[in-house]
Amino acid sequence: MESKPIAVPTKLKKSKSNFPTLESIKSKIASQTKEDSLTTPKSDEKKEFTNEPYTENDIIKAWDDFKELRKEMGNDQEVAFLNHDFIHTNGLIKVQIHNSILEVTFDKIRVELLAHLRKSLANDSIKIDIEKLEVESKKMLYTNKEKLDHLASIHPNIAILKEKLGLDPDY
Fold first, then answer.
1. How far apart are the first and last CA of the chain?
2. Which of 19, 62, 148, 156 could connect to 169 by a Cys-Cys bridge, CB 3.0–4.6 Å?
3. Cross-strand partners of 89
């Protein structure tokens, strides 16, 4: 058997790898940031605000549309909140509530409601807030003495009658 000599290359050739070089990565990043700066607005640029006029009926329609969206989503608590009365004056919508617990519901939907109203009415100057209404609490009359004193404050003759007859309401 004859053996053939194996040819061993004197210089190994360097093969080019598929990995990018550091310079190519830097140039790619620089070109992307240039493109991004051209497409994205700068912070100095002002966004155009829309300020279309609207009527009270337009607000009511936009409000009812938002209420229907919440009803379809099954958010009964939010729908109950949206049933409250509101007052509109000079671009400010005040929702009138009697209970401080409703503030939590309002805080939950405030951003979405405001965005919906601004979009529907094409007016970015609209603001929304809540107005807490004071509820007058009555003192409950439990005992006979409290009831008699209350009636005596309304009708002074009852107090005179009580003294003349010597009535004791607690007995």
1. 137
2. 148
3. 92
Among 143, 142, 141, which residue's Cα sits nearest to residue 169? Answer: 143
Rounded CA gap, 151 and 148, in Å?
A: 5
137-146 pLDDT per residue, tens? 777 888 888 8
Residue 76 DSSP SS3: helix
| Amino acid letter, 134 | E
CB atoms within 10 A of CB 113: 22
Q: Which tens digits make up the pLDDT trace of 47-68?
A: 566 788 888 898 899 999 999 9
- Give me the residues of the chain with pLDDT under 70, please: 1-18, 33-49
Q: For the whole model, what pTM was predicted?
A: 0.53
Q: Can you name the residues that pair with 133 across neighbouring β-strands?
A: none
